[in-house]
Amino acid sequence: MKFPKLRELGEAIKALIKGPYTTKFPAKPAQIDPNFRGKVMYNEKICVGCGACAEVCPANAIDVTDDAKTKKRCIVHHYDMCIFCGQCHANCPPVDGIVLTNEYDMAFLGDRDKQITGVEKELALCECCGEVITTVDHLRFLSKKLGALSYSNPNLILVNQDEMGLIEVKYEKEEIPHQRANTMRVLCGKCRRKAALKEEWGEPK
Fold this sequence. Notes:
elongated; alpha+beta; two-stranded antiparallel ribbon; 6 strands
């Protein structure tokens, strides 16, 4: 441009008349696009505690901790490590178990360990060995998702009947021996295989 000073003068006059281009944040909240990927939050009513969000997180910002003694699974999201890629939401089986909100002001002073959000779910333990299978909500979700096909899996049958109030399942270790009656118990894959082999072939010699 031949006259850069005139251009700058014109922009200065426009700014005086129309106001500055920048927003008035933090005095006034900025307008956020509906698709903006902000702070990650868990929806406790929808989340099933499957841990898929932790599996796909490229920044390793999500931790999954199982405590067999308290029968609790804690899923914690560290939003100070999050890159807000949205993979957790995109790969969430119930779709909205974890969402990215429009909250963008996450600056903090102090301990980084406190910059977390999470959810806690009840674990379903194998009744024979006490190994963690998954969460109770995850089994219920799978049962509803599969519909009539869920009756091909003993674990899902029991969860379905427990939710309907027909039986009471404790989802905890009872230290029972492997026997034919264990077919209709909540078992991990290894114990179910042992119970099936014993039913088919009997006691090993």
